[in-house]
Each structure stands twice: as structure tokens, then as C-alpha cells.
Amino acid sequence: MHRLGLFAALALLVACAAGASLGPGDQHHRSKKMMRGPKRGLKHKVNVDDYLAAPSNVANQHVSFLPPQPVQRKQRSPYAKHNSVEHSVNPTRQSRFLSLFSVVRFENLECGAVSGDNGTCLAARECIERGGVASGPCAGGFGVCCVFIVTCGQTTYQNSTYFVNSGYPGPYDGTGSCQLTVHKRHPDICQLRLDFDQFMIGGPEIINHVCSNDQFIVSGGSPVPAICGTNTGNHMYVDAGAGYTSPVTLTFVTSGPAFPRNWKVRISQIPCQSNYKAEDGCMQYHTGVTGQIRSFNYDSGMGLQLSNQDYSICIRMERNFCGIQYTTAPDPVNNRSRSFSLSGQTTGQNQVTSMVGSVGPNSCNGDWIIIPCAANAGRAPSIEPTCTDRICGGTFNSEVSTVPATVFSTVKPFRIIYHTNNVEFPNDQSNRGFALNYVQQPCTNVMN
Ligand SMILES: [Ca+2]
């Protein structure tokens, strides 16, 4: 929260007396005040206590521009003798004076910067002190949209920080390790959300799809699998625990062949009580009635499914929705869709069958997704304990088939568990991972 105290207010008064121009917000308040203000030259006090009494932390409050509040004599503080300012001004000067002597408070909300990035609305001086870059106005011109961009070897405490590659916005094609240390801004931060605005590093090796060259590693928080390849537009959540804990470190290791790497990771600090905090245990968290989920390095053109993955993808159950259905996303690149290819030899043009469950000849024992009690749309849900859960193979279907299906589940909360082992060759080749579109299903009498 920013507060204009006595000194700032006096500075503004001087600026006003010198004929400094006012911003749109100032003019707005001035015109309102002029309509309400005294018509004659009266003597007014402005009590400094009123400004100093403003809370120093108004996070989670609404933006508030306090209208000018001339203090009545009978409200004078017993300390007014020492910290109040008394002025006698003529009618014209008085109107301006009162408008300037307002405490301007605004919450440090997220703002859209001129650069196109997301920033935090701060006073200009605070932005500089925190190491940010002002990028356009906010809060009606009283604040600046402060953007934090950091790179290798740095430390951040700021919400909405961008972690970029060395040489950004240009590419980086050297080898080494680029690490960022992330501290909580407050002890009531429980999670970090990492949005991969840009994420292009070397992919996995092509035999077993392990990220053994380039990789992105998160340490210090909840376990997160190492990832590599192209992940632009994807995200992950890291549980950072309650209270002040050890920092979370984000590391890009670039040890693979020369490659024009580029990354820009936005780091958001999620308060423990916020309504956008991910449910526990979710490394990915999607909201909305419809959306798309993709495994890391999913790319219908070149991307290979990553080995050694083991995490949960959660979809927030929206109000009045009781079920969820999944279909494979279109694959515009291949003449045979590979938007679900988890296991099997999918190099050729022959459709590879789906496999389900954990027992039997067509079961999933290496790589799979789990959709609890999955059933194909149009069929009654299975009854436990015969529910299908694991699905793998080269076709998305909750039954063994070479025809893709729409699969639904009514198990709450809505989650998919994704698991891959550390082996592909020779039984599994050219698998891409998955891109699934989901649509939540409204509650009905049979689905609740
Ligand atoms: Ca595997």
C-alpha cells in the first residue's frame, strides 16, 4: 500500500502553487471538491494524524481514493499542535489545496504493463526500491505498473516476477546452469504458479525420452519432475508450504547440443487463502468449464513424451457441474492423430490400439493416465471395483479399441494422474504424450 504522507503532501502543495499540471485523477477529485467546497475564505485545519493513521498494509482491500476530508475544529487531535498543518488560503487557492491534501491509497493489484507483461501497481519510488521497471501508469495515474524481470543468479521476493534466459529477448545457446532463487513475499504464501510464457529448451534424448541434456528443475518445494523441450503455454504449481520456509529454486540446465533456447517464466505467489490456490496435490490446475490439458513437451510435430513423469492434473469443479468428459485435441500435423500416444510403437501409420487397466494382455504397466472410473460417453459408468482407471496405448478410449472415444468420469474432484517410467525403446517408440480437451458436464438426476 502506498501512502502520501505529510512531506509528500507538502511537496504536492508546492507543485500546485507553482502551477504544475494535474493528472486525470487529480482533476476528477478537484472538480468534485470544487462543487462541494466552501465558497468563502475559511480557515481549515488538515490533521496529520488522519494521514498517519492509515494502515500501512491494505493488501486485499479495494482500491480507494479517499475524497478530501477537511477536519473540523472539534475533531482536533490533542497532538494537533505538533503534527497538524494549519493553513489560511483564499477561495481559489483553497479549493486546490484541499484536493491535494487527500490521502491516496491504492491496493497493489496486478496491472497490465505497456510492455505487454503483467506487473504490480506500486508507487514509482517503491517500484525502483524493489528493483522493478515502471511500465505505464495504474491506479488512475497515482501508481506505476511495476514489472520485475530477473535472470540467472538472481533472487526474487516479488509476486509476478519474470525469469528470463540470459540475453533475453534474444536466444541463449550456451551451456551451463541458470538458477533463480524465489523467496516468499509473505509467510502466508503457500504456492508458486509458474506460467511458461516462453519455454523452448532442448528436448529429451530420442531413445528413452529422458531429459538428460537440457532440463528445467524445481527444488525446495513439492516434488516436481524435471521437464525439457517445448512447453510454451503450459504451467505448473509448486507447493511452498506454510510460513517462512526455505526458498524454491528454479534451474535451467543447458548441457545439450547448441540450440536457440528461450524462456520467460512468470512466477506468481499464491496466498494460502486465495480462491485461485490449486487444490492440494495438484501440479497442474485448470479452471473453467472447458479447457485443454497437455503433457509436457507435447507437440504434434516433433515433441516426444517425457519419461519419469508422475503428477496430478486437476480441474476445478465449477458450480452446478458434476462430471467431466475428455476427448483428444485435433492433430493438424499428422494424417493419423497422435494427440494421445502414450505407449506402443506409434512411428508408423497403423493405428495403435488403446490399452486399459493394470491386468491382462492389453494393460498399462509402463506409462499411463488415470481417469478415475472412466467410461466411454454413451455408456453407463462402470461399477466399482471394475472401474477402468488406467488408459494408455495409441488410441484414447476407456475400452480396448482402435477408434478414439469421448471418455467421461463423475469422480470428484476432477483429476487425471499421469505416470511414465524411464524406458521407451524398443517397445515404445515415437510417442507424443497427450493433448486432451475437457468439458465439464452439468448435474442431472443421474449424475450427481
Ligand atoms: Ca515409458
Summed up:
The protein is mainly beta and 448 residues long.
Write the SSE topology:
Elements: H1 6-17, H2 24-36, E1 43-47, H3 48-52, E2 64-65, H4 80-83, E3 84-88, H5 91-100, E4 104-105, E5 110-112, E6 118-122, H6 124-129, E7 133-138, E8 143-150, E9 155-156, E10 161-164, E11 176-182, E12 189-200, E13 215-219, E14 235-239, E15 248-254, E16 262-271, E17 284-286, E18 290-294, E19 310-315, E20 321-328, E21 340-341, E22 354-356, E23 368-376, E24 388-393, E25 407-409, E26 414-419, E27 433-442
Parallel strand pairs: 8-10, 9-11, 17-19
Antiparallel strand pairs: 1-3, 2-4, 5-6, 6-8, 7-8, 10-16, 11-15, 12-14, 12-16, 13-15, 18-27, 19-26, 20-25, 20-27, 21-27, 22-24, 23-24, 23-25, 23-26
Helix pairs in contact: 1-5, 2-5
The structure holds calcium ion.
Calcium ion (CA) is lined by residues 307, 366-367, 420-421, 423-424, 428.
Can you give a write-up of this model?
There is one protein chain. This protein is mostly beta strands. It folds into four domains: 6-105, no CATH class; 110-150; 151-277, Spermadhesin, CUB domain (Jelly Rolls, Sandwich), CATH 2.60.120.290; 278-448, Spermadhesin, CUB domain (Jelly Rolls, Sandwich), CATH 2.60.120.290. The protein is 11% helix and 33% strand. The protein is built from six helices and 27 strands. It has helices at 6-17, 24-36, 48-52, 80-83, 91-100, 124-129, and strands at 43-47, 64-65, 84-88, 104-105, 110-112, 118-122, 133-138, 143-150, 155-156, 161-164, 176-182, 189-200, 215-219, 235-239, 248-254, 262-271, 284-286, 290-294, 310-315, 321-328, 340-341, 354-356, 368-376, 388-393, 407-409, 414-419, 433-442. Strands 17, 18, 19, 20, 21, 22, 23, 24, 25, 26 and 27 form an eleven-stranded mixed sheet that branches. Strands 5, 6, 7, 8, 10, 12, 14 and 16 form an eight-stranded mixed sheet that branches. A four-stranded mixed sheet has the order 9-11-15-13, with no helix packed on it. A hairpin with a 5-residue loop joins β5 (110-112) and β6 (118-122). α1 (6-17) runs antiparallel to α5 (91-100) and α2 crosses α5 (91-100). The chain is globular, with a radius of gyration of 29 Å. Mean pLDDT is 80; it is low at 1-95. The structure holds calcium ion. Calcium ion binds next to loops. Calcium ion binds at residues 307, 366-367, 420-421, 423-424, 428. It comes from Cloeon dipterum. This is CUB domain-containing protein. Disulfide bonds join 211-228. InterPro entries: CUB_dom, CUB_metazoa, Sperma_CUB_dom_sf.
